[in-house]
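The material for today's practical consists of a large collection of protein records. There is nothing in a record beyond a sequence line and a structure line. As an example, a complete record with its sequence and its structure tokens follows:
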Amino acid sequence: MASRSPPQSWEYLLTKEELLWRNHYVWLKEHDYLLRPRYNPDWVPSQWIAGKELSELGFDLRFEDSQANAKFSKNYKVMDATRISDGAFVVLKPINIAMYEEEIPIGLWFSEEPQASDPANHCVPILEVLDFPDVPGKRIIVMPQLCRYDKPRFDTVGEAVEFMRQVFQGLQFMHKNNIVHRDCNAENIMMDVTRLFPTPYHPLDTRMKRDWSGRVSHLTRTQRPVKYYLIDFGLSVRYAPGAHRPPEPIVLGGDRSAPEFRMKDGVLPMECDPFPTDIYYIGNLLRTDFVEGRGYGPRPPKLGFEFLRPLMEDMVQDDPALRPTMDEVVRRFDEIIRGLSRRKLRSRVVKVDDDFDCFYAVTHWFRMIASIIRRREPIPSP
């Protein structure tokens, strides 16, 4: 087959979402943010250098620059970058300010003092806000690079308990400051895993090194405690201190299962009190990700979390007025945790469908013994 000359531009290999970033690569670099080589206007796919045929270019997943921020990726709405001035890994998120007018003001308020230094604040900080030079109505918020809360998976019950404690504390902090999240589902709870990974991981796959040269290893949360964050305030509402909190129009986020969204007597409700709905979202996360699992997808229940059931069931009651407030949730959760033994907290987190693996069981025991010798707390708070 006769060879073909490479095209002048490889942008045809990029998705529509990726072209936005490619077109602003130089501008972002001028503002201290460097995107991956894939988005450099002068990018030549490494597959071409490796001698691939033109028809094969751009789709060989063995190469780092084939990792696309596309719609089949959960991260396609944001873009990872490196801050040139200090090498920090960050995330860039474009915001449609007409559609999500409160996301930036609320995020900036949580990022200001004295809120930023409050240990109860678990809202993701906004590091900077940029204005697109040629995209009217859109701004970019810069945030630390974070990972989904359960990747890597929990090693011990105590690690999962600390996750719940921080999330409860974070939502309580929001509610105390008259702010309701309205979309606090599993996809919007992240963690800073910088200390877990001695070698930087790839932003699209935490199992791989950042340069895609191989698998990356990580420590446990007990060895290196982490901090969890609530993200995405696009649907959030802020009330003035002491102001009346009227019902809000119902908006559907990632979790659409709340009972107050269901049709009643043939009528679809149009509004609800969003504070109890926040309680439902977090209670439903306990139900689907820990106690009972989901009836769909790869989300089996985890063994050993039945101690959460009484609190969880109260948080997901059909009548929003019967659900506990966040203050009550935090108080009851603290009482539950005080009743757990240190042995229970150090026990391994096992999913229902996990096959018995002697290697993992033995290595867990070695880690547990090492933690006891080093006097690491079974609930690893940062």
In short: The chain has two domains: 13-87, 147-373. Residues 1-7, 51-58 have pLDDT under 50 and may be disordered. The chain is about 25% helix and 15% strand. The first strand starts at residue 33 and ends at 34.
